[in-house]
Amino acid sequence: MEFTVKQIAMLLGGEVDGDDSLVINQLAKIEEGKPGCISFLSNPKYEPHLYTTQASAVIVDRSFTPKMAVPAALIFVDNSYSAFTRLLEEYHQRIAYKRAGIEQPSHLGDDSEVGDQIYRGAFSYIGRNCRIGHNVKIYPQAYIGDNVRIGDNTIIHSGVKILDNSVIGNYCTLHPNVVIGSEGFGFAPQTDGSFKAIPQLGNVILEDFVSIGANTTIDCATMGSTVIRQGAKLDNLIMIAHNVEIGKNTVIAAQTGVSGSTKIGDNCIIGGQVGFAGHLTIANRTKVGAQSGVGKSIKEEGTSLNGSPAFELNDHFRSLAVFRKLPQLEKRIHHVEKHLNNQEQHLNHK
Amino acid sequence: MEFTVKQIAMLLGGEVDGDDSLVINQLAKIEEGKPGCISFLSNPKYEPHLYTTQASAVIVDRSFTPKMAVPAALIFVDNSYSAFTRLLEEYHQRIAYKRAGIEQPSHLGDDSEVGDQIYRGAFSYIGRNCRIGHNVKIYPQAYIGDNVRIGDNTIIHSGVKILDNSVIGNYCTLHPNVVIGSEGFGFAPQTDGSFKAIPQLGNVILEDFVSIGANTTIDCATMGSTVIRQGAKLDNLIMIAHNVEIGKNTVIAAQTGVSGSTKIGDNCIIGGQVGFAGHLTIANRTKVGAQSGVGKSIKEEGTSLNGSPAFELNDHFRSLAVFRKLPQLEKRIHHVEKHLNNQEQHLNHK
Amino acid sequence: MEFTVKQIAMLLGGEVDGDDSLVINQLAKIEEGKPGCISFLSNPKYEPHLYTTQASAVIVDRSFTPKMAVPAALIFVDNSYSAFTRLLEEYHQRIAYKRAGIEQPSHLGDDSEVGDQIYRGAFSYIGRNCRIGHNVKIYPQAYIGDNVRIGDNTIIHSGVKILDNSVIGNYCTLHPNVVIGSEGFGFAPQTDGSFKAIPQLGNVILEDFVSIGANTTIDCATMGSTVIRQGAKLDNLIMIAHNVEIGKNTVIAAQTGVSGSTKIGDNCIIGGQVGFAGHLTIANRTKVGAQSGVGKSIKEEGTSLNGSPAFELNDHFRSLAVFRKLPQLEKRIHHVEKHLNNQEQHLNHK
Question: Where does the record place the catalytic residues (chains A, B, C) (predicted)?
């Protein structure tokens, strides 16, 4: 797949400064650019690479003025980052091999229906009484239990396990080995010290445009539903416990865990390896730093939290700054005490 | 499946206050109750919902007296929580589709034997020389290696991988994508800076009534066995390293990691995202707060720990309380120093 | 498989003190030794067990002199630990059942080629246009996408998912349910608050002798490659984000996460549950303590870090020591203030 710089500029609605007949056949980062590559400059930190890159062309912002000669052809656009992202998408659509059809052996249970243009990979399993939409891709070795609903244009990668009664929306992506609808961790203590599993009768609902990262697990609700709302994006190895709700367009980084019945609001940004206690309510647009431990509900929208246990970000940073010099602090106290003692003795002697 | 309030009261040995002819067809939380639902009130925190719930019936403790009129029929029992749990179980048993029989294709290796009433799902794999008990459910795409022993009434969910020589007890549940018996992380450093894998010849033993959450991994022992004792319950995404032992009825929340050769006692309660160093011995009934890092053995039974590194819970809380006001503390020290300095000068001038 | 003590001593180039005709049929830890077992003593901490062990033979260092009578036969060698490791390897090679051949059903896509002596387990899947080397073991239910390259002598365990365009070296081991090449977590924020996935066009490269633990996930690069260099060893449940590089012979313990574009050097030792922020560069031979959070690049080789946020190990230990006595520190400040106040009043009264 090859294009000239001119063709790409037209696609992006940009203007070329330099040789627009150069042929482009690859995308690359500006610091890794080679002849035939197109790259982009958005973050000013990378500007020095612009003057040395071997890439044939670089997309830049219209507002940008080079400080010296640039070896590559420049394409000026309104927003270089989104223009490059658009190129990535075009490229991805053209190169990606489109899986389609039904590979054998694969299993389709009684009373289950699948839509048009479906891909069902070898060794994939669909249980009973499922309703699967159009243009759904079910990769090899994926498992779909009984009574599952899946919308249109959703991708179920290899090794994903979707348990009974789950409901998955349209345009969702479930990455490899994701588990949806496993039994929640609920046990009733018995008088002899043992525990008895509490039946988990609820399900999991993923609304539209939800993305779930590899090896993430989402438990079903005890009753009712564990819900991941529209547009939420979850990274890899995350744990979502029973009856949790994750709000619209909330983004959660890898290895975070959310305990039972906690409700996280819309448009939140949660770092990696964060832990949430159970039964909390977290306001919209809350931001939580990586490795934080959130033990209390957050009522005010737009709060930034950090630390374990987490409190307001700036306060936490201030405490951390002093934590680092605690040994000196202790010495200062010791010094003051000694001083005071000397003074005391001095005064007493007077 | 429908029952009247009267029928449910009889099942639970309770007395009805209200219309006992109402028809119940669903279970719900008290705050989500709708007509046709039965709910329960155990935690006093939820009492306000009792006076507004749309549920048709609510199970309450015999010791409870409503403070005002209740729209729902009440069923009085000794323990509302366990009564409701019992209802959940009844309900679960009646609705759950019972998997049975052998779906094809599935693999059964040479010299392996399986008991009666087994379910072997499509694309499940059983290696050589295995002994699998009665009424075991092996879901699609589960893998069982060679020389594996599995007791009666155990459930192996989809995608579970049980490696060679593992021993699984009766009434265990292994949730989807659990890995049992993977090679322990043991490497001998070589003189050139590289590492050579130390063969891991041991196995994993799960005693009876053990539950292992989705995507949790339990490594086999270098020699001997990694052991999960009777009734222990492990949540999702937990890491159990080689030669670890987890005691009877110990409960571990999600994403916790236990390093090699550590022995955790009976009836411990371990929070989520906790880390244990290797070669520790943790006394019975130890409680560890979420995100703690346990670096030392615990000798006294019933100890409560918190923090990373973890120490006694109340001491940790006291240190945390001061941590939050460290910036003020620093100011106070600064103030004292200044003050002292002024005094000094004042005294010297006298 | 049985050997006499004499035969084992010859294999290891050691000398026997005791009955060299005893028969050995098992390996065991010194504290768990029984008749017929051989064990070893390397760590002096375990020396007391030497005088009480029931093992038939114990391997010890040539430099070691027992302090009292030893019931077992002793085999003296240069390095008891490596000698024992060698025995483990011998034992492992003799007992391990060698998987070989092609089990059916299994899937091999168009234009894919596999080498000699391959094992392809039942329900394993190889996509299109793959090149798989000699003596590769692909266990049941493993998935290999399109355009994947795998070197010789590599083991792909059950449930491993290797996505399109990944490149795996020679002598690698991928433990069960590992995910290689899943889409990186990259989303472009849209003006309406939603996020759009940025196509991830890169791949993952694992060089030779790499080991990846169960349920670990390694995302593909946005462009270019996520790279795990020769001899690196990753434990279970680790998250490696897009465009990360892990250096030669670097060892990472379980449940650690590395954010996008971070480069970790050679011969680093990273504890469990550590988090790395994105876009960092970590020098060779860096050591990071368990549960640390690394937020800054490390320039000096051989640095030891600890804490969240992480700083120099010894400094962190000193701060932690004071953290534990913060409540006393606060009291001391309070005491000083009071004292100073009294003095003040005293002086004013003079």
Answer: 242 (proton acceptor)
pLDDT at C237 over 80: yes
Q: What is the tens place of the pLDDT at every residue in B90-118? A: 877 776 667 899 999 999 999 999 999 99
- Is the per-residue pLDDT at C78 higher than 90? yes
C23: tokens are 């028969």
Q: How far is B74 from chain A (nearest CA, A)?
A: 20
Residues of chain A positioned with their CB less than 8 A from the CB of C194: 209, 231, 249
Q: How far is B248 from chain C (nearest CA, A)?
A: 21
Using alpha carbons, select from C128, C167, C135, C137 the residue that is nearest to residue C150. Answer: C167
Interface predicted TM-score (ipTM): 0.88
3-class DSSP assignment, residue C294: strand
* Cross-chain Cβ contact B224/C32 below 8 Å: yes
A242 is catalytic: yes
Residue C82 included in any domain: yes
10 Å Cβ neighbour count for C129?
17
For testing contact with chain C, the best of A291, A301, A308, A334 (most C CBs within 10 A): A291
Chains that touch A (3 or more CB pairs under 8 A): B, C
Considering the domain architecture, whether residues A91 and A216 belong to the same structural domain is answered as no
C96 pLDDT band (50/70/90 cuts)?
low
How close does chain C come to A191, measured CA to CA in Å? 35
* pLDDT tens track for B285-307: 999 999 999 999 999 999 999 99
| Neighbour order of strands in the sheet with A73-77 | A15-17, A73-77, A57-61, A37-40, A26-27
pLDDT score recorded for residue A225 = 95
**Contacts with A223 from chain B: Cβ below 8 Å:** 27-29, 32, 88
Q: Using 50, 70 and 90 to split pLDDT, how confident is the model at B340?
A: confident
Which of the residues B40, B236, B332, B344 would you substitute to probe the A interface, choosing the one with the greatest number of A C-beta atoms within 10 Å?
A: B236
Domain boundary residue among C52, C80, C96? C96
pTM for this predicted structure: 0.90
Q: Are residues A171 and A304 in the same domain?
A: yes
Report the distance separating Cα B298 and Cα B280, nearest Å: 8
Domain end, chosen from A277, A293, A309, is at A309
Whether B91 and B173 map to the same domain: the answer is: no
Please name the residues between 48 and 67 in chain A that touch chain B, using a CB distance below 8 Å.
none
Q: Is B344 on the interface with A (CB under 8 A)?
A: yes
Q: What is the CATH number of the domain that holds C27?
A: 3.40.1390.10
Tell me which residues of B are annotated as active site.
242
Interface membership of A34 toward C (CB under 8 Å) = no
Please report whether residue C81 resides in a domain. Answer: yes
> Residue A27 above 90 pLDDT?
no
